[in-house]
Design goal:
Number of strands: 14
Number of helices: 12
Largest sheet: 7 strands, parallel
Order of helices and strands: EHEHEHEHEHEHEHEHEHEEHEHEEH
Strand content: 15-25%
Radius of gyration: 20 Å
Shape: globular
Structural class: alpha/beta
Distance between the termini: 35 Å
Strand order of the largest sheet: 3-2-1-4-5-7-6
Length: about 350
């Protein structure tokens, strides 16, 4: 059995990791840490876990947690994973970071967008940006795994095949994305207060959202050159889900069959990425509670543009589900282990 620790088990992504790993046939929860709720059971924080685990939360002790575990998930905001990563390398263990500390390869870009000093620059070369459908060969055998962000996952999966084929002009990319409120985290703010979010959709991080450099970095890998794009995220008054709408100029005339063939080559054998039938466009409801990504597109000959739509559950394929998928790769398990279930509909 794989001994698993979760540093930051009481946040939304930490709670989802607990739920998923309790049903994983090859894992045992060995350490669940917290900064403020030590001594409580995780089921006291998330009553839905009642009857499934009596695991008690403990104070965060990085060295001890790493020592007890084969793999450690870091389910904390940016700025907290470097010390864990250093200890993981020291003890020859594995870490999957659900935060941003190891996603960006250029530490100066990280410092510019996240406004903190990166204390683990020497480790960035050893970290893998772990979007399984694109980089699974790089993930195997590694110790420092950077789990992608939620918005980037929905966007990169949709755009990478077209950029690799050279049929869209990346300099014309415009991305409009909407997220459920769980993407804002568990800590209450004015923006997440019920009175503010109910019956409301709002744009935020306009032109300066922290996922922009991550999206640009990974799409540049697919395209083969750097470029800038326009990305605007929005809050939606739903609990889970991301719906990303993407628009780009075509570089030449293409038809639907050619584009569908590109996606079939890219994702036809994938467990969790599904191109929907023509004229059926993704809904957040269809992927909620699953590790799936639904995609579809429309070619607009009138404007010579292509419109792409993708949907994921921000807490699963956008965070904890993808993290478990990456763990499965690290330990040579079938990627769908513990994750093969449909979304919750209705």
């Amino acid at each position: 059995m794989i001994k698993v620790g979760i540093i930051g088990a009481t946040g939304y992504t930490g709670g989802e990791l607990v739920r998923l790993l309790l049903n994983h046939p090859e894992t045992v929860l060995t350490a669940l840490t917290t900064t403020s709720q030590a001594g409580m059971r995780i089921a006291d924080i998330y009553p839905a876990l009642t009857g499934y685990t009596d695991e008690v939360l403990v104070e965060a002790d990085v060295a001890k947690t790493v020592e007890l575990c084969d793999v450690v998930f870091v389910a904390l905001p940016h700025g907290h994973a470097v010390a864990v990563g250093r200890e993981v390398l020291k003890q020859n263990k594995k870490m999957i970071d659900l935060g941003a500390d190891f996603r960006l390869k250029d530490s100066s870009v990280y410092e510019e967008w996240y406004k903190v000093t990166h204390d683990g620059k020497e480790m960035l070369a050893d970290a893998v940006y772990a979007l399984p459908e694109l980089h699974r060969a790089e993930i195997k055998g590694k110790s420092l795994i950077a789990n992608p962000g939620c918005y980037p996952t929905s966007i990169i999966l949709a755009l990478a095949p077209l950029l690799q084929a050279g049929i869209i002009n990346p300099h014309t990319l415009v991305i409009d994305a909407k997220s459920g409120m769980s993407g804002a985290g568990k800590k209450l703010t004015e923006a997440t207060h019920y009175v503010e979010m109910n019956d409301n959709v709002d744009a935020y991080g306009v032109g300066n959202h922290r996922h922009i450099p991550e999206i640009e970095q990974e799409l540049a890998r697919a395209y083969g050159a750097k470029f800038f794009l326009s990305f605007t995220p929005h809050h939606m008054p739903i609990t889970r889900g991301i719906l990303s709408s993407m628009y780009a100029d075509l570089t030449r005339t293409v038809d639907e069959a050619e584009v569908r063939a590109l996606y079939e080559v890219a994702y036809g054998q994938e467990q969790f990425v599904h191109l929907l039938k023509p004229n059926i466009y993704p809904h957040t409801k269809w992927v909620a509670g699953s590790n799936n990504c639904h995609l579809n597109f429309k070619i607009d000959p009138r404007t010579n543009r292509i419109i792409l739509i993708s949907a994921i559950d921000n807490l699963l394929k956008g965070a904890s589900g993808q993290a478990v998928q990456n763990m499965n790769i690290l330990f040579d398990l079938p990627e769908e282990t513990g994750l093969k279930f449909a979304g919750l509909m209705p």
